[in-house]
Amino acid sequence: DIQMTQSPSSLSASVGDRVTITCRASQGISNSLAWYQQKPGKAPKLLLYAASRLESGVPSRFSGSGSGTDYTLTISSLQPEDFATYYCQQYYRTPPMYTFGQGTKLEIK
Amino acid sequence: QLQLQESGPGLVKASETLSLTCTVSGGSISTSNYHWGWIRQPPGKGLEWIGSISYSGSTYHNVSLKSRVSISGDTSKNLVSLKLSSVTAADTAVYYCARHFSLMGDYYMDVWGKGTTVSVS
Fold this sequence. Notes:
The structure holds two protein chains of two kinds. By secondary structure, chain A is an all-beta fold. Chain A has strands spanning 4-7, 10-13, 19-25, 33-38, 45-49, 53-54, 62-67, 70-75, 85-92, 97-100, 104-108. In chain A, strands 2, 4, 5, 6, 9, 10 and 11 form a seven-stranded mixed β-sheet that branches. The chains are: A mainly beta, B mainly beta.
């Protein structure tokens, strides 16, 4: 099985900060990676897919990059509504399966 | 607008079978290149994929759940069902259903239901 390791597990930042969250796969996943945002009591929301493609309606301050085993989610200028938990998720084709990272809780400093 | 609504008992006894339904409105579960799946989240913990079903009815699931998982689709009612047998307290979680869309053979979860809480007593 492919394991996904996110870092950090929690992060304190201020409005306006630039923030980066990292996800590392236990083997290469060829950009088959998505990022989700989850607020308390709510379902996850898709932010980016295929490592760097922005989902429709998601602000451009969110961006993704990476290749092979290492991927990053960057928020260029934190807004109050961005404080949430973020998850990476990989899709593996054979056999088809999905694995989520353990999550990164982004809190207000 | 596509909407997914999970439903089912909020309380299940240990060793019994958990049964949930995801009713899809605003779209068809038979639409090509979409899959439909179940994801759960234990209290205070992260997300775990349970299993999915394709638009053609083929299913696949998380091997860590072994043979306890059964997923099916009812095209006449436009819903997807989940059955999880021999439940224990570890199966207590919020259960979500989600649509998966395809990009060059990879799948991503773009529309989610609000989730339903299931407790195992």
